[in-house]
């Protein structure tokens, strides 16, 4: 959908078009409406999905439309990131989209005096790692008393690098009236705890980071499907011709949400234990009912909901009837989408 259709101001839309952004990614579309309405948002999203603009756009929109004249030069937004590399990427994204806003990026390993100088001159947005932000707070160089927006980017990674205490101390120092955005590829217990503790009750959860396993009968079909999907969807393949070490790396990447679709043959998928698969797709039907049941068992595990889709030709209808008879399960028929529907979903 065109960026002009989301109720953003002309100045924000013009800034996006100037940098060549004419449409929004799904995560950006899903976050923008509740964010502009003032709601706290939890987004489950990986790097590369467009999540930076998802939280940056509502912040930029508010700051640009409110104007900067006459207001205090204490920061109005703070973005916390687990690494200096990610912090610099976020700062760059904001600066490109809204160059009129004063932004500073703070992180360790560089002279703290230069960062203090920028803060004294006044900024709208602070992007930084929790350790350096905490240092600046302790030196009374960073005042969070007027913060309106807090963003936790890649919150699960902040846990991995030991920033839990710093993050909680920073959140405690921000006004309770703030609006908070939390983005994380996974939701370990600590992330769930800070969500419950620091975000408003009734916050919006945006989870577009679904995982699927797509089954084929042959290794060739798996390779061909991976090549076709790879142009649009983050996917990797698993079959018997792939070395065991590579298979284990692929499975770990899938568990870690580094890609969203695993394409596998039945043999390679035997014994898979992945608890959070949302969807199983039978791209090619198996030759026996037992394999069909085994495939479906890869989703809906550990008390979670799951879904399975079986694709078949008219010639394979007999297999659907056989599965229904032997398992007692029912199918809901979904027609092939038209070319118009396909274009609208792109």
From TrEMBL:
GO molecular-function term, one example from the UniProt record: RNA helicase activity
Start and end residues of each Helicase ATP-binding domain: 32-205
Record keywords: ATP-binding, Helicase, Hydrolase, Nucleotide-binding
One GO cellular component, as annotated: cytosol
Stretches assigned to the Helicase C-terminal domain: 190-346
Family per similarity comment: Belongs to the DEAD box helicase family. DDX21/DDX50 subfamily.
Entries under PANTHER family matching the protein: ATP-DEPENDENT RNA HELICASE DBPA (PTHR47959:SF1), ATP-DEPENDENT RNA HELICASE RHLE-RELATED (PTHR47959)
Protein name: DEAD/DEAH box helicase
Lineage: Eukaryota, Viridiplantae, Chlorophyta, Mamiellophyceae, Mamiellales
């Amino acid at each position: 959908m065109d960026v002009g259709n989301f109720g953003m101001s002309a100045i924000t839309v013009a800034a996006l078009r100037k940098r060549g952004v004419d449409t929004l990614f799904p995560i950006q579309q899903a976050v923008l409406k509740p964010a502009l309405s003032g709601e706290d948002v939890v987004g489950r999203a990986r790097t590369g999905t467009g999540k930076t603009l998802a939280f940056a756009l509502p912040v930029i929109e508010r700051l640009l439309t409110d104007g900067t004249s006459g207001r205090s030069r204490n920061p109005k937004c703070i973005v916390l990131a687990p690494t200096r590399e990610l912090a610099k990427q976020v700062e760059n994204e904001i600066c490109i989209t809204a160059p009129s806003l004063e932004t500073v990026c703070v992180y360790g390993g560089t002279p703290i005096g230069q960062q203090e100088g920028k803060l004294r001159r006044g900024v709208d947005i602070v992007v930084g790692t929790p350790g350096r932000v905490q240092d600046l707070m302790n030196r009374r160089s960073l005042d969070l008393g007027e913060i309106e927006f807090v963003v936790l980017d890649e919150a699960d990674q902040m846990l991995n690098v030991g920033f839990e205490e710093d993050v909680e101390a920073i959140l405690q120092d921000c006004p309770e009236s703030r609006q908070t955005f939390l983005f994380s590829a996974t939701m370990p217990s600590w992330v769930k705890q800070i969500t419950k503790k620091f975000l408003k009750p009734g916050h919006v959860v945006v989870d577009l980071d679904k995982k699927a396993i797509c089954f084929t009968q042959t290794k060739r079909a798996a390779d061909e499907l991976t090549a076709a999907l790879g142009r649009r969807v983050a996917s990797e393949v698993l079959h018997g011709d792939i070395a065991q070490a590579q298979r284990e790396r692929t499975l770990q990447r899938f568990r870690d949400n580094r890609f969203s679709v695993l394409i596998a043959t039945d043999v390679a998928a035997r014994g898979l234990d992945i608890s959070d698969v949302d969807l199983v797709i039978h791209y090619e039907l198996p030759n026996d009912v037992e394999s069909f049941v085994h495939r479906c068992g890869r989703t809906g595990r550990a008390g979670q909901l799951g879904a399975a889709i079986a694709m078949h030709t008219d010639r394979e209808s007999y297999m659907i009837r056989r599965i229904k008879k032997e398992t007692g399960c029912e199918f809901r028929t979904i027609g092939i989408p038209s070319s118009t529907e396909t274009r609208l979903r792109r």
